[in-house]
Each structure stands twice: as C-alpha cells, then as structure tokens.
C-alpha cells in the first residue's frame, strides 16, 4: 500500500481551480509525502499533460483526484437565483456536465498513477475494479459513516475522512439541503467513528495546518494527514494572489453554496453573507458564477470571489512545499514524543 511506503504521513490535498500544480505535487513527493494532482474542472487532455509534467519532476508515487459527477439539477431550482445575480454581476450559462469523468477514467486506466481518489461520490465497483486492474489504489472522500461503508463495499482501499473544518467543497456524496439541519462531523469525531466502523486505513482531512494537528489525527487512529490550506502560500502552488493575501488575515470562515451551488468552506465575504439561501445546484451555479468570479479576481475584489480555506487558514506559513512537509513532519514527531513522555510521567 502506498501509505506504507511514504517517508512521512503527509498527503497533499488536491485543490482544484488553480492551486494544484505538477510542481506542488512533485515537491511534496520529493519531501517524502504523497502529492496529488487535482483533475477537477480540467479536460482529460489537460490532465494528461499535467500527469506527464509531474512524472518529469519526480519518480515517486503520486495521486490524481476526480470529481464524481452529479445528477442534473432542475432548472426551476436555480434559475431565480441566476436571474437575481445577473442584475448586479456578469453571469454565464448555468450548464451541467460530468467533468469529463469517463474520459478521465479511461486516461487513468491507460496511463495509471499510484492512487486515484474521488470527491462528491463513490465510483461503482466496476469502475474501481478497472483501476485496481492496472495497479492503482482507490481512495474515496467521505464525511459520514454511511458514506464510508458504501465506499468500502464498492472496493475502496483508503478513506479520506473530511471533517467540517476543511476548506473548499464538502466531499459529501449528496449535497442535500435537508442535511444542513444536521451537525456536520468534526474531524476527530469522524476519525473515531470510522475507526470503529471500517477496517481500511483512514487519511484525515480538515483544518490541519500544523505539525501538532498532524500528531493529533495520527494519535486518533488516522494513517496520515491530508493537508490543503497550509500549502496555499507555497511558491509552487498556483494560488491566486488575492487568496494568498486573504488567508493571512483572521477572517472567519463559513459554509456557502453562493458561488457554486454546492456547500463549500471559505473566508466570509459580502457575497456569501448576502446570498445565504443559494440553492443546491452543482455544477450549474459554478458555471453561472464563473464570469463574476473572474471579474472579481481581475479587480482584486475579495468580496465577490470564492476564497476557499480551512478554519485554521491564518496559520498557513509562506514556505517552499518541501520545507513545509519537513517542518510539519518534525513538529508532529516532537508533539507525539512529548505527549508520550507526559503520559508516562502521569503513571
């Protein structure tokens, strides 16, 4: 298993929409962690180019993350919202697509990588079997015990446990507004529940920005920590300047559907606050708000663009990715040794 071969139990979160680059993934791999490429929003052809570029930078194992396609949303659900936005902002076509799922799967069967992970849903047993047949592990992002059991039954090798603290989109299999009334599980709670429910390894994700937090999830039973926000300020990341600057502030985060139609955590801004009742319609709203988000980035307007970040974003350092991995690893080791020492002294 790939996790057993890593020099350090640190996995790069696959941050779609810009931050994910071959340079960032390769740097994490070279430092002993597992780098990931985000395939979300990319055509299969571009993903192929990025896989090739990553292989030119590292010979170590790396992964690719795919967005599992959602069902089309009824037009009546989102059209009033788009009409409202169009009175103030430039908007695009509210279209549905599968994010090139079939073509990407075919590409990864023809040109295998060590790990394929999914977000927003679980591939079928037949799809997972295709990846297993070419030597790839299948990791599935889950947010509940029910999702975890479904993923294991389908053949998942590893579960990525995403706590509510995580930045970016919630990896839930279904984005049901009815679930908004149910408390989303925090990371430590989720890891404990999954450890009791399933036997496959768990990678913990959500709000992990320091080595001490890495130590915490390892102590709770996770096999590794998946980290995203902490890497946003690395020079290898393709993070937009607007976001690089914003995450250094103590701005609180919140969950919103305002930008994409799917719940996601980002820095609270005017757009999110003014559109608290945006409907669940992904990716239709994602495409519709594309022009307004692009305009905001060009204008440097942080109040009208999605600033995805986890709850501990202000702790993200400005370091090269390899140095960050080594720092997190050393701090995690020290924290675990200190905790063990304190425990021994107690007895």
From TrEMBL:
Catalytic reaction equation(s): 3 propionate 3-nitronate + 3 O2 + H2O = 3 3-oxopropanoate + 2 nitrate + nitrite + H2O2 + 3 H(+)
Cofactor(s) needed for function: FMN
GO biological process, one term: response to toxic substance
InterPro entries found in the cross-reference section: Aldolase_TIM, Dihydroorotate_DH_CS, NMO
CDD domains assigned to the protein according to its UniProt record, in alphabetical order: NPD_like
Coiled coil residues, start to end: none
Keyword Signal in record: no
Keywords: Detoxification, Flavoprotein, FMN, Monooxygenase, Oxidoreductase
Gene3D superfamilies: Aldolase class I (3.20.20.70)
GO molecular function per UniProt: nitronate monooxygenase activity; oxidoreductase activity, acting on the CH-CH group of donors
Source organism superkingdom: Bacteria
Protein family according to the UniProt entry: Belongs to the nitronate monooxygenase family. NMO class I subfamily.
Name used for this protein in its record: Propionate 3-nitronate monooxygenase
Organism of derivation: Nocardia terrae
């Amino acid at each position: 298993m790939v996790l057993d071969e890593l020099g350090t139990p640190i996995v790069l979160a696959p941050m779609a929409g810009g931050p994910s680059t071959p340079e960032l993934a390769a740097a994490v791999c070279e430092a002993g962690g597992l780098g990931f490429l985000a395939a979300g929003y990319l055509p299969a052809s571009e993903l192929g180019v990025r896989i090739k570029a990553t292989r030119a930078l590292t010979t170590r194992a790396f992964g690719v993350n795919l967005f599992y396609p959602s069902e089309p949303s009824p037009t009546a659900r989102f059209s009033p919202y788009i009409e409202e936005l169009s009175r103030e902002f430039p908007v695009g076509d509210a279209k549905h697509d599968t994010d090139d799922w079939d073509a990407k799967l075919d590409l990864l069967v023809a040109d295998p990588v060590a790990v394929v992970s999914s977000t927003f849903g679980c591939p079928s047993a037949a799809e997972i079997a295709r990846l297993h047949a070419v030597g790839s592990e299948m990791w599935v992002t889950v947010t509940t015990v029910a999702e975890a059991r479904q993923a294991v039954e389908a053949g998942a090798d590893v579960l990525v446990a995403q706590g509510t603290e995580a930045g970016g989109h919630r990896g839930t299999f279904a984005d049901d507004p009815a679930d908004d009334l149910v408390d989303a599980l925090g990371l430590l709670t989720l890891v404990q529940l999954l450890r009791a429910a399933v036997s496959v390894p768990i990678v913990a994700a959500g709000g992990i920005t320091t080595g001490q937090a890495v130590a915490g999830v390892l102590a709770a039973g996770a096999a590794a920590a998946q980290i995203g926000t902490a890497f946003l300020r690395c020079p290898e990341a393709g993070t937009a300047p607007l976001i690089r600057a914003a995450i250094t502030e103590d701005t609180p985060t919140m969950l919103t559907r305002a930008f994409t139609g799917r719940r996601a955590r980002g820095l609270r801004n005017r757009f999110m606050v003014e559109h608290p009742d945006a409907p669940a319609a992904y990716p239709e709203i994602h495409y519709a708000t594309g022009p307004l988000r692009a305009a905001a980035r060009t204008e440097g307007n942080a109040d009208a663009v999605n600033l995805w970040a986890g709850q501990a974003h202000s702790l993200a350092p400005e370091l090269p990715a390899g140095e960050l991995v080594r720092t997190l690893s050393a701090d995690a080791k020290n924290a675990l040794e200190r905790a063990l020492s304190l425990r021994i002294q107690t007895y």
